Amino acid sequence: MKFYNHALVALLAVLFSGVDSNLEVITNPNATAYRGGNITLPCRFSGVPEAVYWHKHNRTGAPDDQATLVVSKVKDQDVYQPVDPRYDITTDHSLVISDVQIEDETTYSCEVSVPNAPTGKNYTALTVIALAKKLYPVVRGCMVTERAKPGKCVYEVRADTENFVLMCRVEQVKPVVSLSWTNQYNDERTINRLVTGPDEDGLFNATSELRVSRTEIENGDSFVCKATGESVKGTSALVVTVKYPSGLSSGGKAGIAIFVLIVIAVIGIGIGFFLWRRKKEQEKKEAKREAEMKDPEMEPLSPLQSKFEVLAEKIKNYKPGSFSRLEKKKGRIWPEVTRLGVFGVTNAGKSSLVRSLNFSLTGEFIDVEVATSESIGGLTTIPKPFCLTDHLTVVDNRGLKDLDVSGINGIMDQIREY
């Protein structure tokens, strides 16, 4: 009975102290990552850890004594990365591997330490897949045009070739893929297969050769190279269409003929337009030549004539101005038409001057009218106005027998009147 009591007390002490003699650490047994990508390996357990350690074993399934610490997190301390900064640990104690490489493929172990309990540990085996750069096979010498859809190409056979080889390849992958050839009717063809690798980077190359006789196929027939494996994400295929050199088809010949006709038509239109324009220019030259023959050649103006031309232009463009502020204050305004008066004794040439001025500016010729009397002194007649421009009128005061030069003020009154 005494021994029983001691055992019960020891069991209760263990329970109240929080000790868990069976710390369980849970990880994924297996994980897969793609080369160049990222992968997260979880590590789950109960309780608050004192420390979490992630180890990388030197090969898949290697024991603990062949493992290297890659990252750790001790309570109240910074994350420790002794090997490579690509390895990191998250807040939930998972291992993150960035930019996964082939050499990252191995076993990883998560070791957890909690207070007053044995250390717990579990393992994850990581597999790394290296995808092909192109997820469909490649055939040497097969041309992929811009219009062709992915997974299709054209293989042109030389005119002097009777037998040829279609070489299908998927390179630098892991794991290796399986290659096969079928014709357009999905009949499998006998082929030669070759696999090389792994190379120093752990990658494989796969090649499949299909030998074809020109006599067994028609121009435009096709073959399909199919790749199967994880490194092409299951199954992918390349359709190879075989083309023989040949003459133009009827459609191609018709197209060339139409193109030639269009070119000829364009050239004809261009020549016709050139001849028409040349003819028009010749007609203009003939018309100009005839006009020059009909009209006498005009002599250049003399300096005096040029001066008169300038003065005539100024007279034609004349417009009444405005009075000064003082004149406006007196109530004077400019009339719409300015009238000029020509005064002089009989036979002084007043009428000739006025009519010459009128002819210069208007082109209208009026015969001279002479006002005289038996005493030569002439006889004052009614003044005759001549409209030289829209704003300028000159008045011919003919005769003026009673002209009194001394009475200049009276003459000015007559000028203002007109």
UniProtKB/TrEMBL annotation:
GO terms for cellular component: plasma membrane. It is a single-pass type I membrane protein. The chain crosses the membrane at residues 254-276. The keyword Transmembrane applies. It is found in: Cell membrane. Keywords: Cell membrane, Disulfide bond, Glycoprotein, Immunoglobulin domain, Membrane, Receptor, Signal, Transmembrane, Transmembrane helix. PROSITE patterns: IG_LIKE. Residues 21-127, 137-241 form the Ig-like domain. Residues 1-21 form the signal peptide. Pfam families: C2-set_2, V-set. InterPro entries: CD80_C2-set, Ig-like_dom, Ig-like_dom_sf, Ig-like_fold, Ig_sub, Ig_V-set, P-loop_NTPase, T-cell_Activation_Regulation. PANTHER family: FIBRONECTIN TYPE-III DOMAIN-CONTAINING PROTEIN, T-LYMPHOCYTE ACTIVATION ANTIGEN. This is Ig-like domain-containing protein. It comes from Strongylocentrotus purpuratus (Purple sea urchin).
